């Protein structure tokens, strides 16, 4: 299946696309590995105002307008792999080899991606997918002491390995699922090779979105975000858009988490369509056809 995504609703992307098409560019930027996480829960009408929309909600951030990559854009928590993510750490759940098969990456790259996913969620959302044993409750990290630890990670003074070892915790990889693999188009000045993960919001834990990279965060009905995108009032890039479409069609958070989608590397191609519009043409061959 071939699908075109308009660039016109994302001003920064549209400007970049037009510059690229006019020949104002050099060589494509190098790719940086990255991980992002869809944190989901069954819909409720107490916090998000979702009363009758999608049966599932997702935690989203809106990136600040000053960000060099994807400014003012609706995103899932996540970010680039960091050199700290290569450190050995206590690991519970599917091992690195099993995850490498799921992600289609070598074991070293896989370790970094899974660790980055967990680290970024803690840094940006205040939820840490780690526990004292392999099937125990997740560690409670709302105390001032844990917020200092979180700040140390954000400042790159600590690695996740440092944190887990000091507190006698193990990384809970069983609480993550692989969902998709997208690569930033060659026209973008900053490019990422991103794995998309899914995690259920853990019961009894708080999530806050307290990150300097976002000016708004919270629980959203994916169908409402898609409607805002269609109306031109929300900036959503193709990878997030397709994941939100998948989520909006799911009957429950648990069923979405349990899915085992076909994962293939997808990189949109910037082209001019028959109407003369700059679009991101995306080939979904070999994957479950997205909606829309």
Automatic annotation (TrEMBL):
- What protein name is recorded for this chain? NUDIX hydrolase
Q: Which SUPFAM superfamilies match?
A: Nudix
Q: According to its UniProt record, which cofactors does this protein need?
A: Mn(2+); Mg(2+)
Q: Which UniProt keywords apply?
A: Hydrolase, Magnesium, Manganese, Metal-binding
Give the source species.
Candidatus Phosphoribacter hodrii
Q: Which residues form the Nudix hydrolase domain?
A: 30-242
**GO-annotated molecular function:** hydrolase activity, acting on acid anhydrides, in phosphorus-containing anhydrides; metal ion binding
């Amino acid at each position: 299946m071939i699908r075109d995504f308009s660039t016109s609703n994302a001003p920064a992307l549209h400007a970049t696309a037009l510059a690229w098409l006019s020949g104002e560019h050099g060589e494509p930027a190098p790719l940086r590995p990255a991980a992002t996480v869809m944190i989901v829960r069954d819909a409720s009408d107490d916090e998000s105002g979702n009363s009758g929309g999608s049966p599932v909600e997702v935690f989203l951030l809106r990136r600040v307008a000053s960000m060099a990559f994807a400014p003012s854009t609706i995103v899932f928590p996540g970010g680039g792999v960091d050199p700290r993510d290569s450190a050995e750490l206590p690991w519970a759940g599917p091992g690195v080899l099993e995850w490498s098969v799921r992600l289609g990456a070598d074991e070293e790259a896989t370790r970094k991606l899974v660790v980055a996913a967990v680290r970024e969620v803690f840094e940006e959302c205040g939820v840490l997918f780690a526990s004292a044993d392999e099937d125990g409750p997740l560690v409670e990290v709302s105390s001032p002491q844990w917020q200092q630890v979180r700040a140390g990670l954000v400042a790159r003074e600590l690695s996740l390995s440092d944190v887990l070892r000091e507190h006698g915790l193990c990384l809970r990889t069983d609480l993550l699922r692989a969902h998709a693999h997208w690569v930033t188009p060659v026209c973008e000045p900053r490019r990422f090779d991103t794995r998309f993960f899914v995690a259920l919001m853990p019961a009894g834990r708080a999530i806050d979105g307290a990150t300097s990279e976002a000016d708004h965060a919270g629980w959203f009905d994916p169908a409402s975000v898609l409607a805002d995108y269609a109306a031109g009032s929300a900036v959503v890039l193709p990878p997030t858009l397709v994941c939100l479409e998948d989520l909006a069609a799911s009957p429950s958070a648990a069923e979405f988490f349990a899915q085992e989608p076909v994962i293939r590397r997808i990189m949109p191609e910037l082209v001019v369509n028959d109407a003369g519009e700059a679009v991101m043409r995306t080939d979904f061959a070999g994957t479950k056809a997205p909606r829309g």
